[in-house]
Amino acid sequence: MATVANSAGKKLCQRKEPRTHYESRIPLTPTGLLMEGHSTQIADSFDYVHIRAFVFLSSLYASVCSFESKPYFHERRYSRIQRAAKLLFPRSSGKLRMTRVLQRTLWPFCIVANTAPIVATAVWFPQFLSAVSAGITVLLLLLLVHAEEGIPYRSDWSTRGDPELWRDMGHTLAYAAFAVNATRVLFLGALAGALGRLGLLNLFQVWPTRGPRWLQVVVIIVIGDLFEYAYHRLSHVHPWLWRIHAIHHTPVRLSVVKGARHHFLYALGRGTMVWLPLLLVGAPASLVYWQFIVVTVAGLPAHANVNFWLPGWLHRLAVTPEYHRIHHSVDLPLCNSNFAIVFPFWDMVFGTHSDPVLVRMGEAGLQGDEHPTGLVQEMKGPFISVATVSRSE
User: Fold this and answer.
1) Predicted TM-score (pTM) of this structure
2) Do residues 107 and 96 lie in contact, with contact meaning Cβ atoms separated by under 8 Å?
3) Separation of alpha carbons 252 and 268, rounded Å
4) What is the pLDDT of residues 110-169, one digit of tens each?
5) Do the beta carbons of residue 322 and residue 103 sit within 8 Å?
């Protein structure tokens, strides 16, 4: 595979285009990406070399992250990455250099590799947005599962031998495959249509309806993250909402497969407390789903059992795995912090911020957990009268 990747990289590097060829093209700026009426021009200006570059880098990353049963790399050498690693870490051994490069680049790679295909699909093939988003999520999930075996944050959190693995898969199917899509049809389809007929959309006349679509998406992401923060925090305070949300906190080990471990009712709660308010303030129903896409992009690596090395300032700009890991701590004060899903700004504003540079989590899970165990029992849990208190008590 290294030979194929290197030959593809050489051909890619050898390709040269006249300078005027690029100057005559429409720049692929965010303004051009989501402005209505420009998709055909941008599609005509798209250079196939970018696809080849993306495929080459993705395949190379997948090859590097293919580990043996022990947390070591294959002996096969990948000259391009190794040369870059040697420049960054000249005094380290080959395996250590590769590990350090992955620890520093895997998280931003996951964010970019998840976002770029989704944005491209939204511009050129919007009818396939949901399918592409789901497909990219699955591919990156598999990549992170391999990375968890190679550079784990904690080796005892490995998915190998995890007795709850099939339980996690069951929740993932019920929540991500069924409940999220059902909520989308209910709130962004039927309910949005009913509100439109009643004249309740854009009720407060504050939405930038004349602004470009990319600007409206940005507003949806930012305001939607505020609503998501409020919903998440309320789920730790209200007893019945906590019984729905507690399933997400019961695992005593964190891994990428735990990210979608939610009760299916949690998706309906998002529709009520996040999507419905966005519709009422005027957000177009066709764009509101971007709020959940961004939640998925941030949440997938946030639960990964990977020993990422990220600069301290980054934890204040975006929710990183170190940042969200604190929220899953068995320690109650830490669990009642870092509620933000995308932007830590909301935790800083509302006084629920725990800086991962200063704070380290211990064990994960719930102290004195009396919640039902087993997939079926957890599904029935919120409907059964049990002595369950909120997580804030």
Assistant:
1) 0.75
2) no
3) 26
4) 999 999 999 999 989 988 988 898 899 999 999 999 999 999 999 999 988 888 999 999
5) no
